[in-house]
## 1
Amino acid sequence: MRTIQTLSFIILLSLIMSGCGTAVEPTPTQLAESMKGYELYSWQDGNLWEFSLLVGTNREKSLDEIKSPDSVLLGMDALTSTLRRVPPGQYVTWLSGETLSFPPGNIIKQVEDICKDQGLILNIAK
């Protein structure tokens, strides 16, 4: 009886300890290749620059699509991590439009550098 209790305790302790390991961050999945590349949009909300990176199409995107909560990237960190998921060799066209604008030169330079490092072809349509 004592052997069964000891064995049960060891199994229970092992199960508890196995759940105490360090968490592993999942690797973000790479975005799909797009025949039309990707479209990048930017605008300023207060002091924060917001971005949207959408799959390229033959049609003009509506402001609702661009600023959809599912699409908005808040700040440079979010944009950087998303651009790192775009497959190398893809075109990224940075567009402007109604209520959209380009950020200051230092942010544009950061985006250019990230795209270059990732092997992306950035076109800025100013």
## 2
Amino acid sequence: MFLAERVPADFSGPYAVPDPGLFFPNNLPNRPAVTPVGTWTLSVDSSLPLAFPNSYITTHSSNVVLNTGTDFNHGFDSLELQLTNTIVADGTLSFDYVLDLLATGPAAVWNFGGYIVNGVVTNLPAGTGSVTLPVSAGDIIGFDVYGSVTCIQCLPGNSAGSATLTITNFIAPVPEPTTTALFVSSAVLALVRARARRRVASLKRS
């Protein structure tokens, strides 16, 4: 059995990202596109990726930002970004977030941001917040943003579908390093005890 510990509040170890890293989804191949981002996987799905020229992902050891940008085509195009990874030990996942949505109210369906657990997206409310949830080794977790539609008539700036999600204070479980140390210590202790028994037996014979 492997015990688990919580890593420092950053994207490191089995959850490492390029530091710094900068990615432009509209420059990736036709959708859906998948590309590695450190130990993570970036999935990009869009009806017209070139319609979102200002979309980007930035990565640092302390934070990750996913931004869909807005639809330059002024149409009903969409862009969804998903950044996922695999949990390596049982334990607790937690993070803080800031979610900026360009459209709210009736137009809110045109953009959202959230987190993923085993393919299920949980939308987060706009603004700031924190998430804590139990996870198991092998779970696929991640983050999701979706932007769609430029509404020429409904909002100032002729834009509606845009989502920016910033993740900080990311903490996820990793195998406890002392697990290996425990096995080594047990082996050493057994060896010491065996030698002690042989020494006692030798003294008795003499």
